[in-house]
Amino acid sequence: MSLVLDPAAQDLLFREARTANTFTDEPVTDEQIQAIHDLIKYGPTSMNQSPLRVTLVRSPEARERLVQHLAEGNQKKTAAAPLVAILSADNEYHEELPHLFPHFPQAKDMHGASREAREKSAALNAALQAAYFIIGVRAAGLAAGPMTGLDFAGVQKEFLDDDHTPLVVINIGKPGEDAWFPRSPRLEYEQVVTTV
């Protein structure tokens, strides 16, 4: 059975898509980010909790503050990327559940009872949304350079608050010269899928 999605779209989103390491200086607009959000907001999360939050780093001053918290190998490419996004999990997502999950009024109180459980759920579900965010960036014809080589506590202190846990920093833009490293191998179907 073949996929329904057009092969060109499959290539754009998956087969040809790569983590970009260089970018052109073409700006990434607020309208592009809005379009990405409007597409990816439909991705599934548990009880529709939607805990992903996005902090766009645009000003040179904010960029400098961010770069100092990145691993050395990530600093130069982040300093030069047209746009950088800090993706975080909102650990107080339960405050939005009356709006997001209205058919179950007890959801807010249920999730509000344990901060530890909420943090675990927020981390998992925001990570799902982060993956959709990367695909959305690709769908917009842009390249994403996600990075986890960073001082998470430093990024949280510098840009977020105690209710938001940073997950990943993503450079965004049109790929520049020599943007791609050679593609690494992938596991085959038989190595991943087990039928019981």
Short description:
The protein is built from 9 helices and 4 strands. It has 196 residues and is an alpha+beta fold. It is globular and about 50 Å long.
Explain what this protein looks like in three dimensions.
The chain is α+β, with helices and mostly antiparallel strands and 196 residues long. The chain contains 9 helices and 4 strands. The protein has a 4-stranded antiparallel beta sheet. Helix 1 packs across helix 7. The longest helix has 25 residues. The mean pLDDT is 96.
Oligomer: single chain
Tell me about the largest β-sheet.
4 strands, antiparallel
What is the residue-averaged pLDDT?
A: 96
Distance between the termini: 22 Å
Q: Tell me the helix content.
A: 40-55%
* SSE succession: HHEHHEHHHEHEH
Decide which structural class fits the backbone: alpha+beta
Topology:
Layout (H helix, E strand, L loop, with lengths): L6 H9 L14 H11 L11 E6 L2 H8 L4 H9 L2 E8 L6 H4 L6 H6 L2 H25 L3 E5 L4 H8 L4 E10 L15 H4 L4
Antiparallel strand pairs: 1-2, 2-4, 3-4
What descriptive keywords fit this protein?
196 residues, alpha+beta
